[in-house]
Design a protein that fits this description.
Helix content is 59%, strand content 0%. It is built from six helices and no strands.
Length: 98
């Protein structure tokens, strides 16, 4: 499993940090931050990208409260899922900005 913290919609900051740390350790962070993009020129590379992206999407779904699944499950990539969750649940922390 990707993280020991189950995201419930109220603990986004801590959950995000743990997921990012775990993905970085597995060399998969680029799938959610956009630095590893979907390739369309080579069918074999495209297939490999889709397999890993599906795995990350599954990991994220497995550490989110099941009540939230229907609102995020119908996206095309792990990055879209990540951005959707962030847009909905991240609350700017003014002291962190300064």
């Amino acid at each position: 499993m990707i993280t020991s913290i189950k995201f419930s919609g109220k603990n986004y900051d801590l959950w995000e940090k743990e997921v990012r740390t775990t993905l970085r350790a597995k060399n998969k962070l680029g799938f959610i931050d956009g630095s590893i993009t979907k390739l369309t020129t080579d069918l074999e590379e495209l297939n490999a990208w889709e397999i890993v992206d599906s795995m990350i999407t599954s990991w994220i779904l497995n550490v989110i409260d099941p009540k939230l699944h229907t609102s995020i499950a119908y996206v095309d990539s792990a990055q879209e899922m990540w951005n959707d969750i962030k847009k909905r649940y991240a609350i700017p922390n003014i002291p962190h900005i300064h």
